[in-house]
Specification:
The protein is globular and about 95 Å long. It is an alpha+beta fold. The strands form 5 sheets. It has a 6-stranded antiparallel β-barrel with strand order 10-13-16-15-14-17. A hairpin with a 2-residue loop joins strand 15 and strand 16. The longest helix is centred in the middle third of the chain and has 34 residues. The protein has 13 helices and 17 strands.
Length: 498
Amino acid sequence: MIRLTSLLRIRAAHTGNAQRASQLRHLHLSDQPLMLLALKQTGPAARPLAVMLGTDPHRPRLLVAPPSSSTAPMLATLADAVTAYIDACQRHSEHLPATSSKPARRRYTDAPQILVPNPQTVQHLKDLGDDLRFRSVDDQTPHSRPVQRLGHWLTYLTDRADLPGSAALIPMTSFLGMHWISGQSPQEDEDLATLLAWIDPPRHAASGRDAAHTAEDPATHRPAGPATDAAFDNDHLAPLFDAYAHARHQAREQEQTRTLQELDRLLATYMQPTWDLMWQAYALLQALPEAKSTARRWDHERTAFTDECLYLAQDGRPRPARDHAVAAAVRLARMEHTAAAFAAERAADDPFVRAELRTTGEAFGGPVTTIDPEHILRGPTGRAQWRPRLTVSTPDPVPMEPGQLLACHTHRNARYKICEVTPADGDTLVDLEITAGMGTVARPNHAVLPETGAFLVFTIAPDHYRMPEFPARDQTPWTHGGPPSDHPDDSDEGEEER
């Protein structure tokens, strides 16, 4: 835990109210997100018990899987609801002109956004997607194709949730924790009810801490899923399950129907408080001003969604259960680049984030003391290169070495190279050279030059991303997913790979 986060958590514990950790909202919020709450039965990890979902806070839709029965009807209804929401995002598209690297193409003007209570629900949906997308499609089996399609989309959405900055599938506790720090532990922040109590306590509560203590009361607390409370299972679910099993064994249809109606009412009552909390959290986050770079990331989200729709229409084969070595390496490289880019954009947008980085040595700030706007270098070919220089005096520790490239929030496209770091009278003088974004000698961009005395914060610039060269699958050894070699178990390996 970094120093600023620790300080905010201590201050929250002292004052009894959550502290702001971000000035801006760094993820896009749709005007009509699909809220989704899920409960699973005790036992098989992906066997659903109930789902509450919808886009209207006042009209949630509850789907319940009957106990001791097939979940196929409930999954078919869930598939219809989720895919109808996804299909609605494909109604309108826009034309993107050709660029130097991409041909002209069309892109949907919207993309799906599903909000869930916590990371545990994301994992539950991932498990469910892994199960459903491999189910066989049989024209004789009703709803088999929509259910498999649901598995495909759940896999896509949960994969997107692994990428920092993605807004396709968002756990609300993580979203709230990005913008507020409570006075409880990070593990306790995974409970939506207590975290929201710290952030937005009821008017009658003396503080967020008191509201959180009230929210923890076992008599009224409702876990946000997907696992239910043990006492709820034993005291309420188990008797209804037993009654339904007995009525089914005795072929008493009216009693079965009555038991299912009681189960629906019970689960609706159990899930409604979390449903209301989800919309409360949504309203809080929507009220925050949106960061500038959020629109660019949402454009990328729409591009990814459009590409996935094309894949589903043209190919549609389910993704493998496990990535082979090259695919896993490509995915890891993309995740690392996405994380670095998201961190850099947050720092450029938000002064709170820059302040946090200053406590870790990943940024420094201070006034500009001198500027040399006429500094000229000669390149290898003897061509004159305009390289303005400036000096910043900072009280922050500067563990960076000369040659380190930096970025500044005032000019996002500019890059600054550390030339020299000199301790002086308690502060540190950092000599910088502008290496990008300043134009040329013939056409200089003077807007990039700061005024003397201007306070600037410099952060470590993200490396220029280029996808590493990975070998083709047929050129990797059989131990890493390539073609089988002359091995005693070649035939078995080939069957497993297929």
